[in-house]
């Protein structure tokens, strides 16, 4: 079974227990950050709209919503999730062929949704 090493520093063994623990922590934080921001954006927008109206919601999140028509104002959240999925595939899938196929299917599916 071949051993894996970090490309930038061959002294770091990627099969070591310490590396695996840090990798697990990285996955947890990446998912919390990558999903937390879009979900918080949706929840906060919903609360602002409920208690202050659509105008307050649009003014508060103008930096994210200004380029979209009102029914599609949360499209940026889907773009953030798409970026998260692409980063996750390129970071945690190590076999290049599988990584390529996953990215192609992912992008194809997300473009079809768009």
Write structural notes for this entry.
The chain contains five helices and no strands. Helix 1 crosses helix 2 (about 55-60). It has helices spanning about 15-50, 55-60, 60-65, 75-90, 95-114. Helices cover about 75% and strands about 0% of the residues. About 5% of the residues are buried. With about 110 residues, it is an all-alpha fold.
- Low-pLDDT runs: none
- Amino-to-carboxy terminus distance: 42 Å
Given helix and strand content, the structural type is mainly alpha
Largest sheet: none
The rounded Rg comes to 19 Å
Helix fraction by DSSP (H/I, runs of at least 4) = over 70%
Instruction: Give the total of beta strands.
Output: 0
Order of helices and strands: HHHHH
* Subunit organisation of the chains: single chain
Mean pLDDT score:
86
Tell me the fraction of residues in β-strands, as a range.
under 5%
What spatial form do the alpha-carbon principal axes imply? elongated
Count of helical regions:
5
Structure characteristics:
elongated; 73% helix; mainly alpha; 114 residues
Secondary-structure map with pairings?
Blueprint: H1 17-52, H2 54-60, H3 62-65, H4 75-92, H5 96-113
Helix pairs in contact: 1-2, 1-4, 4-5
